[in-house]
Amino acid sequence: MPHSPADGTYQATARTTASRARHRVSYDRALVHRILDEGFVCHLGFVREGAPVVLPTLYARDGERLYLHGSTGSAAMRAAADGGLPVCVTVTHVDGLVLAKAAFHHSVNYRSVVAHGVARRLTGEAETRRALDLLVDHVLPGRAADCRPASPRERAATAVLVLDLAEVSAKVREGGPNDEPGDAGLPHWAGVVPARLAFGTPVPAGTGDSGAALPDYLVSPQRPGTAGRNAA
């Protein structure tokens, strides 16, 4: 088993060892969890009929598991129901645009996680219902209890994949541009333009509105770990 919880790290494997910029790779369990917890959209990669497919979807972490949202009719869910589906799941946060003196050295500051493994489809009613609540609350904590639960028909149309976090790594790029010494005197601005995810003012639906007050979790919504990050 690649996961080694005793020392707080994931064990490196051939698939989680970078071919370049290895100094940016980390197997630190806490770092991986922080990056995952801050996001809520991942890209799910798998092979369908001999060709690669990459789909964006919602996810939520629960301990050493990732829950991935999907439709019961999707190719991924159908394949996972037949003994599991080999997948690669990626999550990326863009923290800044790195502008260098030379075009070649432009870059992006980022934090990312890549997880490999075999995903399986949840089949138990109770676990699936719990996973769906986790997915809703991961996007906006408190929302699952503040909306109508899914009906039996809606639950039948929704499926959840679960992936154990075992073969996983993080990669982080931070800091300024890596300009060539000879470019220092060029008359071009160089530096970092910070970037962050920010939510705007909530806009009511306007149809069938019962006059419900704006819930506390929408007054100033933030992702975990984003408070103060790249603040203006």
Helical stretch tally: 4
Low-confidence stretches: none
Computed CA radius of gyration, to the nearest angstrom = 21 Å
Strand order of the largest sheet: 4-5-6-9-8-7
Label the structural class.
alpha+beta
H/E element order: EEEHEEEHEEHHEEE
How confident is the prediction overall: mean pLDDT?
89
| Shape descriptor | globular
Number of strands: 11
The major beta sheet can be summarized as: 6 strands, antiparallel, barrel
Proportion of beta-strand residues = 25-35%
End-to-end Cα distance:
43 Å
The percentage helix is 10-25%
Keywords:
6-stranded antiparallel β-barrel; 232 residues; alpha+beta; single chain; 35% strand
Any overview of this molecule?
- 16% of the residues lie in helices and 35% in strands.
- The chain has 232 residues and is of the alpha+beta class.
- It has a six-stranded antiparallel beta barrel.
- The mean pLDDT is 89.
Question: Which helices and strands occur, and which strands form pairs?
Answer:
Layout: E1 3-4, E2 9-10, E3 25-26, H1 29-38, E4 41-48, E5 51-62, E6 65-71, H2 75-80, E7 85-99, E8 107-121, H3 125-139, H4 152-156, E9 158-164, E10 167-173, E11 191-194
Antiparallel strand pairs: 1-2, 3-10, 4-5, 4-7, 5-6, 6-9, 7-8, 7-11, 8-9, 8-10
